[in-house]
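User: Sequence in, structure out. Go.
Assistant: Echoing your sequence, followed by the structure tokens.
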Amino acid sequence: MKKIGLILIGMVAGIVSLLILIWGGQTNALANPPTGLSPAVVTGTPTPAGWEDEQTPAGIDASSPRLNVLATPVPGESLVYFVPSDSDATATVLYLYNTDTVAHIVALRGYSYDGVLVYSLNINIGAASFLRLSSDSIASAPPPSWATPAPIITNFTDFTYLASLSLPKGVNVEGYTVFNPGTGVVDPRADQGAIPLRFSSDPAALFMPLVKKSP
């Protein structure tokens, strides 16, 4: 009986030692991940200096007279307006696709609340091609559909209240506002929540509520 008791005590001691070793190994593995592996961290393409959302865009003179002049329509092109959102917790994503057989240049403009031009970009889109634009950086290693062609970063900042697109023949646009609080990065692999953009040839209509008439 005495030998059996000693054997049982030894078995229990061995099991306890084994459990301690396993627990210690798991803790060490969590604290020191194996080489070549890293925790899932959302990172993105670097934002150019001076492109902070709440910093006045470069080249804007706050003392300049307020012209209150929006874009002049280009003959043969469709001028549409939309309201972007580009704060610390939101971003605007646009899709441009050209169904024409020739390349086109799309004029993208952004205006402050009193009509001053605060953003300007001319986008070259090839024949029968597609482009994605984003007002925030994109998470690293994006899905294939976001990697080719690479998105164009279009930082509107908080100073753009209204934006316009001059669409040549065959060029179409869609877009949405995405929520990215705490990251400032658009992550296509995450469910960040989005709201479709409204486009209109009448800028005033964008600030009117969508009211449905009762039957």
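User: And one key feature?
Assistant: Confidence is low (pLDDT under 50) at residues 18-51.
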